[in-house]
Amino acid sequence: MAASSSRRTLLWGTANPEGMSNDYQGIFLNKDDIQSMVRQVEDANRKMEKIPVHLEHKGVPVGHVVSAWAHRDTLQCVLQLDEKVFEGSIGSEFVRNGICNELSLGYSVDLQNSNNQMRVVNKTLKEISVVKKGARHHCQIHAVTGKGL
């Protein structure tokens, strides 16, 4: 039997549906923003400053983002939930039992005022949450591993 320190759940899902066209300058992600989010995850992992995973955008981190990639202009990701953390264990069970089967991005949007018009200059990924119902369509968890992998 594996030691409790290796108890984790891996999830694969869509964290953002197809991005808007690159001329879009609103709060949703465009295609370039999705590529930027992929780079942000890669950079954070390289620096060992992993992007956290939360339940419903609240509480303590229950895991971290393992990897992210763009596929057909959507943001795909693998998340690891840590079952050593009480909330991570609960989150894993919520996912396995279909209570929480969607994903939601938590990110900040930096705006700049230029000629009395607000312009988006940057979007920074803060966390990804496992949620009951996400704000965007098609942001679903597609696969879940078992315990102790």
Structural notes for this entry:
With 149 residues, this protein is of the alpha+beta class. It has one domain (7-144): Serine Protease, Human Cytomegalovirus Protease, Chain A (Alpha-Beta Barrel), CATH 3.20.16.10. Helices cover 18% and strands 46% of the residues. It has helices at residues 31-46, 86-96, and strands at 8-16, 52-55, 58-71, 74-82, 102-114, 117-131, 141-144. It has a seven-stranded mixed β-sheet with strand order 5-6-2-3-4-1-7. A hairpin with a 2-residue loop joins strand 5 (102-114) and strand 6. The radius of gyration is 16 Å and the shape is elongated. The termini are close together.
The average pLDDT value, as a whole number, equals: 91
What is the 3D form?
A: elongated
Please identify, by name, the CATH architecture. Answer: Alpha-Beta Barrel
CATH fold topology: Serine Protease, Human Cytomegalovirus Protease, Chain A
- Roughly how many Å apart are the termini? 11 Å
CATH class: Alpha Beta
| Class based on secondary structure composition and strand pairing | alpha+beta
The proportion of residues in beta strands is over 45%
Number of helices: 2
Binned, the helix content reads 10-25%
Q: Let me know the number of strands.
A: 7
Number of self-contained structural domains: 1
- Spatially, the strands of the biggest sheet line up as 5-6-2-3-4-1-7
Secondary structure topology:
Elements: E1 8-16, H1 31-46, E2 52-55, E3 58-71, E4 74-82, H2 86-96, E5 102-114, E6 117-131, E7 141-144
Parallel strand pairs: 2-6
Antiparallel strand pairs: 1-4, 1-7, 2-3, 3-4, 5-6
